[in-house]
Amino acid sequence: MANHIPSGLLEASVVVGASSERLREVFQEQLQGKLRELPLLEAEVLQVHAPPFVSKETVSNGQSHTPAFTRAQKRRSFKKKRERPVVSANDVAKSNETAVPITEDLSVPKDIDVIALPQLCFPEGLRIASESKEDSYHFLVFTDVFGNQSHGVVVQFYRPIHDGGMVHNGHWSAKNPRLYSAYVVCVISKYPYYSALRDCLSCVLSQLKTCRFAELEERVKEFSAKLALVPVPPPGQLHVVFTFKPLQIVLPSREDKDRPAVDHDLHLPFLCFQPEQVLQIITAILTEQRVVFFSSDWAKLTLMAECFMLFIYPLHWQHPYVPLLSGGMLDFIMAPTAYLMGCHVNHLEEVAAETDDLVLIDVDSGTVSSSDLDLPEIPQAARNCFLSRTAGLQFHYDLELCHLGSSIDMNDLRAQRRQWQLRLNTEILQVSLELIVNIFREVQDHLNYEHRVFNHEEFLRSREPTDHTFYQKVLDTHIFHSFLRDRLNRKMDAFHHMERKTRSEAQKWRTDVLRRPPMQEMARKYNGPENRLSKRLGMSLPNLLDEKAFTLQVRRTSLKTMSLERNGFKIPQKPVKTFKLPEFPPPLSYHYVQNYYAELINLLGRAVALATPEDSALLARYYYLRGLVNSVTGKRLDAIGDFQNLYKTDTDIFPAELVNSLVDTLSPDERAQADRRSELKRLISKVKKDHEAQPNDRGGSVKKFELPRTHMQLEDFVRRVQESGIVKDQGTIGRLFEALTVGQQKQVDPDTFRFFYTFWKETEAEAQDVDLPTAVLENLEANECVYKISSSVKTSHGVGKIAMTQRRLFLLTEGRPGYVEVTKFRDIEEVRISSSPFLLTRVNSLKIKRSLRKEWFEANLKSECDLWCLMIKEMWAGRKMADDHKDPQYMQQALTNALLMDAVVGCLQSQKAIYAASKLAYFDRMKSEVPMMVPKTTSETLKHKINPSVDLTSPQAVDVLLYTPGQLGVVDTEGGGNPKLWCALSDGKVVVFDAASWSTLQNGLQVGTARLNCMLGVNQHQLWIGSQDSVIYIINPRSVSCNKQLTEHRSEVTGLALEERSDKYSPLVAYSCSVEGTVTMWDVPTLQVKRQFRLSCDRLQSIQVHSGSLWCCARDSLMEVSRTGTMLRRMALPEHLRDTLTSYSSFLLIPEKEQLWTACADVGELCLWHVHSRNRPFHKIPLPDCAGVACMIRVKNQIWVGSHSQTLGKCRGKIYVVNTEQPCVEKELVAHTDRIQALCSAEDRYVLSGAAREDGKVAIWKVD
What is the pLDDT of residues 141-184, one digit of tens each? Predict the structure, then answer.
């Protein structure tokens, strides 16, 4: 748990070298002429320096205060030989005492393996040299048993052996050559800041090489203490800068909390390997091979391995990872498991000869080879895209400098190079992420989120045959299993965002699990990489409307244009801010360190004050750093206060574990002070509650789909079918259960289920193998799919096979293949079966009457006749329902029913098969039992329907709707500039639609776990959502992410309102109310409470702002209140309703007409009041056949009223359009099968209505 607590830059610094005793022995041998060759010495740990470096006992609670950025590290003791006092050669000669080694304990952080560290610091061994050698750097990665990593930067340098006895009679000896010994300083950090730590070591190295040996420990300790003063920046776009003279060091932040910081050159692999070889290495990692890197340069090994670990993100290597092995560790290569290791190129032939099944990567020669191992190729489409992307990258910095002059400032040169590298690293990460997305994009199509099942076989079957070998190897790896767990947890990581940005239009329209490729796509599936990338887009049901998808005609407020880079690679670089730390103080003095922290807190306070409220992301990072510094200095309450502000500003980077540990260390007096501050008390309560509720398992399990082995009752059958991916809807599965259990006990045996599942999959595969001639394809729509083909039959249009798509029936003529259209489903007038004589018997034939032709179409389908009749009738009924109700999902459901009929008949193969299949004829039965006519007024006004619950197992109530217009000048590959429709469903789920195309932008943004009551578009950067859990969640409309919360309310938040500004310089103010009567006034830019008061009423449920006054609606009254909370007037229920059990449900104020419209929950009328009248309404507008009103909105000169009626015990949603000029009902609209709960307007041109659970859909209405 402690590994999740933020720490500083330094974990520890370790000095490694040969002991002084051994160096004296070597020197004596040289003096005596016995040293014939320079020996190889044993390296050992000489010094360990770890925070804290200064401390002071506190008086108040006796706790030791250690001001350093460090986790509470467990330490252990490590015994080393204590160095003797420094002596001269004469002293050694005079002494006759036997050298007795004296030991002492070093306090070592628990995570550091000091036993193996000397070998890793001197991978070639420690050798005495006759001349000083060039300094060298290399890098280390340490991984503990839990997978937590630490990173080391090692500098190896040489010092003359004079302290060990090279001084003779006070003078240097000229007779004997000077000897040099290698030393290492290894700086260890929890973060991979390889370049920054290398630069820090470079700044101090000259001092370490020239100082006296007695001073070396103090110099290293001082250097380490300075690094311990450096805080690590939080994820985001704020980098930390500090000065290590003469260099300015930059610590880049992580891009997000799930990714490590990138502080090395990611283009190194592309300088050493061709892009095809880079793909080979990525393949070896994804398939979990035993991978070994080789190089003559130790530094390249770790940097190269770290690059590839970033290239496979968000997948994470799950096996041993030792990118640098010393010569004494080569036996690790014999490990039987998968691993990634690195060693010197001198061992290449030895390793290759000793071990089989290795992937050998020679960094120096740029070759990739494998012994007895055939690596599969990455899927062709993803491969080609990657090669195309990398061809456009500029890997050579010198080419960037051609047009620039020379700078004489070293830090300017470094900053220029850093900016170039930052841009290139970002581009490389985008290319590699796009590669991973292209490989695994369609994994989510084969996941069942409810039961956490991945349909392994079905996914593999959906891949290109040439890619099967690759996927067979990848799907069973630990790395892929971890990736699946994240997908099932709906993790909103970089993979998720890239996948959304690179979706094609067809993928955006995915609405069902019926997997059939469009025929035109099948025809060109071998043409090129772009087409192959989207080969399977038709596996999910496409848009089923014959016309183009209904598009909301909104005003074009966005300048967004579609470019050739639509597929999500060229993304504008986010602006980077830097925060410069103060100059380092003497780091071993408690007083100076405290002053340094005080100055740092002041600088951060100044940055907080200067940050504009619009740049809340930057403000959050300043709060984070200040909270971190306050926690280090022992100001725990101030730290918790900063983290409270951070929590309101950006919950994504909230350090919950650190805050929890701070709370645990509060003294009784501090805890009492925190409890007196309500906002801190709430934060502490939430943090402790969340900490106690943390699950034990890491993200949940992942199951493979398996066929059942026992008999299934309905509940188990529903689960199995959902896991299989055939269909999700519980109602459809219930009808399938009835079909498979006709005439028997109500349970499905495993053999029946297996036959059914096999037939379904075989039929699906057959449909994907249909190869239609070009002449036929020209007659089909671009997204049409063939779902069913009959055997060859005689028809009234000739001999051929009847084919069924989601739109039509057509005949594939035999002989010379041709296309003869039979009918579109919407043109059918009658379908029936008749028998006709054939030789000595009678043959059943299918007859179809069409509206566009006089003659009947007849086909002698023989034994298939009954099934085709059922399927066509269901498709015909579904088409009519879809057209009448402007709801394409009816057609999707009808198609699902028809294909399930086919599978049931194929599975049962008995006389009862057709009767069983008829159980699935849902729409045909509806057509027979219930009149399908839609009132003319409704049909003319209704434009379209969408289903927010399409990916759920059952419909969910639409609780709130909000339309947000497009944003001027926004260019965003996720449709950030387009208008959006926000649908709040049950239990905190929000579905977001692109209102320009009605494709789903975000399917299942989770906003808490409670019911959502209200939404408010505050500005282009904030959308507020009030929840039943008393929290106001703040969404970024562009990124569709929630990372801010307002927690000042104590009860259910029921209403939100925004006050119009008199001019652009006026402060933006919002209001919220909660059910117990509290009204809160907010300053929007700062998210601070400006005022709060409480009203006495029965369930306060909405709030509006008009002319500087607040109008509040409670169950028992309407109240006009001043901004200060003064009650100006209260309007009780109308007299004729006071004796009933009803209550106010909604109201509208029309200030220019001084009208107030009210509605009640259980009364079918509207009341119209004069604003200044308190007594009674002057007009009542009855609503015919209305059982109660839920909501009202004003659109132009109309009021749209959302209500419900009760007919024969069934609830239906109704909308009444009321004219405000002549108060009367103009229209009655009926299009929902459950009560209407939400209404919103789209720029006064359309109205959108959302219904309760039994319906769960959103209807789009045109405004006159």
Answer: 998 888 889 999 999 999 988 644 444 444 444 455 678 899 99
Higher pLDDT, 1140 or 883: 883
Give me 891's structure tokens: 């057609």
CA angle 1246, 1247, 1253 (to 5 degrees): 140
1183-1199 average pLDDT score = 93
The answer to whether position 850 is within a domain reads: yes
Residue with tokens 């100006």: 1128
CA distances from 474 to 106, 291, 356, 456, 485 (A): 46, 15, 20, 11, 15
Q: Does 594 share its domain with 655?
A: yes
User: Which domain CATH number covers 404?
Assistant: 3.40.50.11500
Distance CA 643, CA 626 (A): 9
* Separation of alpha carbons 62 and 66, rounded Å: 12
The string of pLDDT tens digits covering residues 1166-1182 is 999 888 776 677 788 99
pTM: 0.84
State the sign of the Cα–Cα–Cα–Cα dihedral 265, 268, 271, 277: negative
Of 1025, 1028, 1006, 1029, nearest in space to 1015 by CA? 1025
Q: Could you identify the residue written with the tokens 């010379």? A: 816
Do both 668 and 815 map to the same domain?
no
Taking residue 844's Cβ as centre, other Cβ atoms within 10 Å add up to: 17
- Whether 652 and 769 map to the same domain: the answer is no
921 is written with which tokens? 């004829």
State the average pLDDT for the chain: 84
pLDDT at 1262: 94
Q: Any residues with CB less than 8 A from the CB of 728 and at least 6 apart, and which?
A: 513, 722, 951, 952, 953
For the chain, the straight-line distance linking the first and the last C-alpha, in angstroms and rounded, comes to 61
What pLDDT does 343 receive? 95
Confidence of residue 509 (pLDDT cuts 50, 70, 90): low
Do 214 and 277 lie in a common domain?
A: no
Q: Which of 873, 902, 929 represents a domain boundary (last residue)?
A: 929
Looking at the 3D structure of the chain, how many domains does it have? 4
Six token digits for residue 295: 């190089």
User: In Å, what is the CA distance from 670 to each residue of 294, 637, 663, 688?
Assistant: 56, 7, 9, 16
Residues 821 and 889 in one domain: yes
Same domain, yes or no: 235 and 320:
no
Classify residue 576: in a domain, yes or no: no
Which of 258, 276, 294 delimits the end of a domain?
258
Same domain as 443, residue 305: yes
Can you tell me the distance from the alpha carbon of 1206 to that of 269, in angstroms, rounded to the nearest whole number? 70
